[in-house]
Amino acid sequence: MSAGISVRLVEGPVNGDVVDAPRGAGAALVFEGRVRPNEGGRLLEALGYEAYSPMTERQLEQLAAAVLEEHGLIGLHVDHSVGRVPIGAMSFRLVVHSAHRKSGLAAMDAFIDRMKRDVALWKVPVYADVSASHGVGKGAAGGG
Amino acid sequence: MTRETRTTVRMEVLLFGPQAALAKVRALSIEVVPGETTCADALRELGEACEFLRDSLPASRLAVNHALVDADVVLRGDEALALIGMVGGG
Predict the structure, then answer these.
(1) To which H or E segment does residue B67 belong?
(2) Is B34 helix (H, G, I), strand (E, B) or coil?
(3) Please, which of A6, A107, B35, B75 could form a disulfide with A71 given CB 3.0 to 4.6 Å?
(4) Do the interacting molecules here have an ipTM over 0.85?
C-alpha cells in the first residue's frame, strides 16, 4: 500500500482517531458516516455490516490508490465498520489530504460513490421492533 | 456408439448481506462441470437453487478466489466462490 493510503476494517463502531495532515496539505477533509435512526419509517436499532476478507480490503486499497492518483491527492485514509453498529455511531470515516479544497472535495465524493457501488461491503438493518434483521439492501440507513 | 460422461462437482458459493437474508443461508451449493461451467452458468444455477435470489442476480457478479471476474470465465471446480451483489457500504 502507498505511504499516503491506509485502509482498516474495524469491528464495531469506528472511532475518531486524528490523522495528522502531511506537509503540503492545504486541505484536510474528514467525512464521518453515521447510522441513522430510521429507515423507510421503521425505527432501527443498529446496522450490521459485513465484509468479505481479504477481497474487501484489497478493493478498498485499489479504490483508494485510484482516487489518490486521479485527483492528485496527498493522502487518503479509510476506516469502515464490520459487525454491529448502533444508531448514531460512526460506521465509516474517510480522511482526505489534498493541496487544495476542490480536488479534495471531488475526491471524497468520487470515493464514496464508487465504494457504495463496487466494494464488497454490505449492511443489513436491525429493526427496533423485531429481534431478527431483514435484508433490505440499497437504501439502508448508513450515513455514507 | 460412445457415450460421453461429464464429471460434475458441487461447489459452495458464499452469500452476504441482503442476499444472505433473502436466501436465509450463508452459502449455497451448485453443480459445476469443471472446465465447462462459466460464471454466468453458475449465477443461473444459483437462481435455480434459490428462487429468492433471482431478482438480484442480474446486478450481481461472482468473485472467484476473492476477485471479481467476467461472466465468461470458466470454473475449474476448486475455486473459492462468493456472490457479490446488493453491496452498499458507508
Answers:
(1) strand B67-68
(2) coil
(3) A107
(4) yes
